[in-house]
Design a protein that fits this description.
Chain lengths: 340, 490
């Protein structure tokens, strides 16, 4: 819905901290329409964005000060990248350049005046890969530390709108997850009930990556890929978590016509807290008695065991052959329907 | 934020946050007589990816390492895959090699387009240049986030990245590149679709950026030809840039050491598309990776007593350290700083125009930008050829098992230069993982001998106008390197 030009713009300030910048890079891939047109149509304006704005150095800092003193209204503070608490709770692993002040402190001050706070990507939401392994920088999310509520702003934090931090999780996050979240906020259409248990917008988190996966037929018959580049289902051997991962990657698609499983590799559940520490190699499926430990969401184990044994017994030859090949060696048969 | 400095007549200026670079950057300048006397470059964000990788299953490097950087995640992925392949003794299939080249090249070309249109050119559309004759055109095309060329370039980039939607699942952070090749094979339909996508990108560049065929740009060979292009060449943003460069003398701005390093890019069946080597005052030479070492003297890192080869290096932050001024280490080759990036690749490869520019006037803002644009044309032409070389039906990914012990280096080229991963595997786990990113070379701090890094050297002499808090010449020079700060200290 086109917005009249005199309407008040929805002001967004974007801060990057302990991340890779990939969520911004992903956002620039927005298409049909492109990012600028998408934002303009919803009257969303970036007060400042580290990749896109002209202002640099002292000009940028002056702008932050205007936001803090209320001269500029802040409708959404977007934070990309984890919050770095180290070393020893000083936050000095990330000083906002030119200011001498840790970025985590800037974020706390800005969040206090923001109508809404949006964590862009899994690092900002839960800590993400920056918090992996030894977590040398004591990284956490804005309002989560892995699965635990808390994080840089604390469990009790609510922005001026009354909402908690909105976690547009994903590593990276899809361009439309970000733009649609901002557009819904600008339109007043995103409330607390529109967020899931980990505060991800439900418009994409109420789906599973499994939905629309072109390998679903292999999944049904447990015709499994055994090695990288095979066509079969990657759940049984290659660590795929598409049946448990909350995201619409296989129905929304990436970069034209892609998704991780369409690209031939496992879903690693990158929209989930603590995805960075699966407890085993990412591309391996841990099993007990031959059955994957992680079973599809909502599926009782006994049923899964029974169904998969039956499915394996019934696997069509076509799927069995194709599953362990890097191209279709046997296409589906064509039946002449006139003869029926 | 200027204050009286230590010596008489010298003032200090701290510049940051530096936007329109990837990641976070702060530059401390010492100024005298309206010029930069000394520069100290600092990377103020440390995450510690090398530590994060230690102790993991080596294959996890393909998940973790790309997430060092969202703008060159594919290059990180490629370096990791090459290091793993080295440990495994695995050679990718021909299809895997060619598809990997396409994936890496797509990211690099996308980076060059982003750099020119989104990061670099908008500085010439600042109000302080309003009196220059070229300003109205530059403002219309390159005003930050609004200019028509900026917006068009983002659309072209989006189209180009469809190559990765198809071949790599998505961008950034794909797992498609493996030690033995790629996870997704292409069929004949994919080939024609890839060709159509590259055709759209070629058309956009030939219409807007160059105003000419890519082949004409790729074949430019002398400074005189470039001058003729500026005087009477086809209309396009390339010519507009040449106009600006002549007016502001960008060919004499931002010279560093004129010592260049490239690991070679896009492996071929016999030789890479862009050669591997170094180029110094002595001419072209070989890269001896055994002579690479990182110095921690001015980095906030432990183990300062001597420089370390990456196979025995460490990344232990020392937050108490007062002498260090950056989380970035100082990599040196034979004890010397080297510049890396498109200008280095084209110097080493012998592209005649870039050699002519650098040998006559030295490496400069102009040389770095022209090198990226010439490389964009050359790479896109190669990509069109690689699409034809993809062979449906032939294998895409060689398979191998993983040894419990071994070590290898993965050396590749990101858009902004030489990228190396040094991997040690012990007892089936990552025992050591050291990364030297392109901007670690270019934006390194001083070393134990007090030798400034390339950017620190390039900034010396940059003009600073009265009252400038963020000197625009400094911005041109910094951005001419296309820095990636998140990679620098990872």
């Amino acid at each position: 819905m086109p917005v009249p030009p005199e309407a008040t713009p929805f002001n967004v300030l974007w801060i990057q901290s302990g991340g890779c910048g990939g969520c911004t890079m992903s956002m620039l891939c927005a298409e049909a329409p492109d990012l600028a047109t998408t934002l303009e149509s919803a009257n969303i304006r970036f007060l400042w964005h580290p990749t896109l704005s002209e202002e640099t150095g002292a000009e940028a800092v002056a702008l932050f000060e205007q936001v803090l003193d209320g001269t500029l209204r802040l409708d959404a503070l977007c934070v990309e990248g984890a919050m770095l608490r180290g070393p020893k709770d000083t936050g000095r692993f990330h000083i906002l350049a030119g200011t001498g002040v840790p970025t985590i402190d800037w974020v706390r001050r800005l969040a206090a005046v923001a109508e809404n706070v949006v964590a862009v990507g899994t690092c900002a939401a839960y800590g993400g890969v920056t918090a992996a392994g030894a977590n040398p920088t004591d990284a956490c999310g804005l309002q989560y530390d892995g699965r635990r509520e808390g994080g840089a702003l604390g469990a009790a934090f609510r922005s001026r709108s009354g909402l908690p931090v909105i976690n547009v999780a994903g590593c990276p996050t899809h361009p439309n997850w970000v733009t649609e979240t901002l557009m819904l906020l600008a339109a007043g259409l995103l409330g607390a009930d529109d967020l899931d248990v980990y505060r991800r917008p439900r418009f994409y988190a109420d789906h599973l990556v499994h939905h629309g996966c072109p390998r679903n037929e292999y999944y049904e018959y447990k015709a499994s890929a055994e090695k990288m580049s095979d066509l079969g289902c990657m759940m049984e051997h290659l660590g795929c978590l598409g049946t448990q991962a909350h995201a619409d990657c296989n129905t929304r698609l990436w970069n034209g016509e892609g998704s991780c499983t369409r690209g031939g590799y496992a879903c690693i559940n990158c929209t989930a807290p603590e995805f960075e520490e699966p407890g085993h190699a990412f591309v391996e499926t841990p099993k007990i008695a031959g059955f994957p430990v992680g079973l599809p969401t909502d599926m009782p184990k006994a049923w899964f065991v029974a169904l998969s044994s039956l499915a394996k017994a019934a696997t069509p030859e076509r799927l069995r052959l194709n599953a362990t090949s890097d191209h279709v060696v046997r296409p589906p048969a064509v039946r002449d329907i006139k003869r029926r | 934020m200027s204050d009286p400095g230590a010596s008489e007549g010298t003032t200090r200026l701290v510049v940051g946050p530096f936007n329109r670079v990837e990641g976070d950057l702060e530059v401390r300048l010492e100024l005298a007589q309206g010029r930069v006397e000394a520069a100290f470059v600092s990377s103020p964000l440390f995450r510690g990816f090398e530590r994060i990788l230690e102790g993991r299953d080596p294959r996890d490097a393909l998940v973790i390492a790309p997430r060092i950087c969202g703008i060159c995640s594919v290059s990180q992925s490629h370096a990791a895959a090459l290091a793993l392949a080295g440990v495994q003794g695995l050679v990718p299939t021909d299809n895997g090699r060619v598809a990997t080249n396409l994936i890496v090249a797509t990211e690099n070309v996308a980076d060059h387009l982003t750099h020119f249109h989104v990061f670099f050119m908008p500085d010439f559309a600042r109000a302080l240049y309003a009196e220059r004759p070229w300003f109205p055109r530059v403002e219309a095309r390159f005003k930050a986030a609004q200019g028509s060329a900026v917006r068009k370039a983002l659309e072209t980039r989006t189209t180009l990245l469809h190559v990765l939607g198809l071949l790599a699942g998505r961008w950034p952070h794909t797992l498609a590149i493996q030690p033995g090749g790629v996870t997704r094979g292409a069929d004949a339909r994919d080939k024609v679709r890839l060709a159509a996508t590259l055709g759209a990108v070629r058309r956009a560049l030939e219409e807007g950026l160059f105003g000419a065929k890519l082949e004409r740009v790729a074949e430019l060979s002398t400074r005189e030809e470039l001058d003729r292009w500026r005087a009477a060449g086809p209309e396009g943003d390339f010519r507009l840039f040449l106009d600006i460069a002549a007016d502001l003398d960008l060919g004499r701005m931002g010279r560093a050491y004129d010592r260049y390093l490239s690991y070679g890019a896009y492996p071929g069946a016999e030789m890479p598309l862009y050669a591997r080597g170094i180029f110094t005052a002595a001419g072209p030479g070989e890269v001896d990776t055994a002579a690479i070492a990182e110095d921690h003297t001015h980095a906030r890192m432990e183990h300062r007593s001597r420089p370390h080869h990456p196979f025995d290096g460490s990344t232990l932050p020392d937050a108490e350290d007062e002498t260090g001024y950056s989380w970035c280490k100082a990599p040196r080759l034979n004890g010397l700083p080297f510049e890396t990036g498109a200008v280095a690749r084209q110097m080493v490869d012998g592209q005649p125009l870039i050699r002519d520019l650098v040998l006559r006037e030295g490496g400069s803002v102009l040389a770095r930008v022209v090198a990226r644009l010439v490389e964009t044309a050359r790479t896109l032409i190669a990509m069109e050829r690689w699409v034809h070389e993809l062979t449906p039906g032939a294998p895409w990914c060689a398979q191998g098992s993983f040894p419990n012990h071994g070590r290898a280096a993965g050396l590749t080229e990101a858009a902004r230069g030489a990228l190396g991963h040094w991997l040690r595997v012990e007892n089936g786990r990552i025992a050591g993982y050291q990364i030297i990113a392109p901007t670690t070379w270019n934006f390194s701090p001083r070393d134990g001998a007090g030798m400034p890094g390339p950017l620190e050297a390039a900034l010396v002499g940059a003009p600073v106008r009265q009252g400038e808090t963020t000197p625009v010449a400094v911005q041109h020079i910094v951005r001419s390197f296309d820095p990636c700060m998140v990679c620098t200290v990872h």
